[in-house]
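User: Teach me something about this protein's shape.
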Amino acid sequence: MRGGGRIFVILGFILALIAGVAVFIVLASAEPQPTQVPTTDLVVAVQQIPARSEVSPDQLGLVPWPVPIPTPIGAYASPAEVVGQLSLVPIYVGQPVIDDMVISKGDVEAQHSNAALLLEEGQVAVALGVSLGSNVAEAIQPGDRVDLVVTYNVEVQNPISAIGSGSYVVTQKTLENVLILQVGPWPRDVGEQSSSQGGGAVNIVTLQMVEQDALALKHIESTAANYAFVLRAANDEQLYTTEPVTIEYINRRFNFNIPGLGQ
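Assistant: First, the predicted structure itself:
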C-alpha cells in the first residue's frame, strides 16, 4: 500500500473512534438523572419520651421531610422549640413531635394541673388503693389498660352453697379497658417525676373513666372482699363477656365432685 493510502486508513480509523466516543457521550447524557427532591427539617424522637416528663435535647433529632408531602399538622422544625416542654403522652422513637403532644410549663401552671390536661373530655380521674397482688406485681405503668376483677363474700339467708355459715363467694370481672393515668402519687411540681419512680412500693394508682364508673369503683373499693387488676396486652381494647366464678363453677369446670354441689 502506498503512503497516501495508509494515511487515509489511519484517518478513517481516527474518525471512527471519534464518532464512537461522541455517540457514547450522547447516549450517556440522554439517560434520566435522579431528581433531587427538596426537603425540610422535621423534629422526631430519637429516644422514647415518657408521658408527663420534661423533653431533653438528647431525646430529639431532625430528619429530612420531602416538601411535596405535607408535614404533620403541628410539627416542629427545630428541637429548640420542643426542649424543656412537658410531654402529655408517650412519644416513641421515630415519631414526629407535634404540638398536641407537648405543653409548656408556663401553660400547665397557668391553666390546669398536669392531670387535668391529660384527661379526655367526658372522663374523670379517680384514685384506687392497690397492693403488690392487686397491681399485677407492680407491672402496671401509665398508659396501660386494665380490667378490674372483684370478689364478694356476702351473707345470704338461703345460700346455694355454704362456705362457713351462710356465706356466698363470687368473683367477676367488672370495669373493662380502663386507662391507667398514673402509678403512685402525682408529682407536686411540674416536670417532677412521681415518687413511685424512686423504687418505693406503689400503693395507689389513678385511673381514667366515666363518672358513673368512678362511682361504681369507689363502692367496690368500700364493699368488696378483695379486688385486683388484670393487665391487658398493648393495643387490646376488645370487650369480653365472662361468667361469674363461684364454688359451683369451680366444681363443675375442674371436676372437684364436691358432695351436694352437683355437676
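Now, about its shape. The helical segments are 3-30, 105-111, 114-118, 211-223, 247-254. The longest helix spans residues 3-30. If you'd like, I can walk through any region in more detail.
User: That's plenty for now, thanks!
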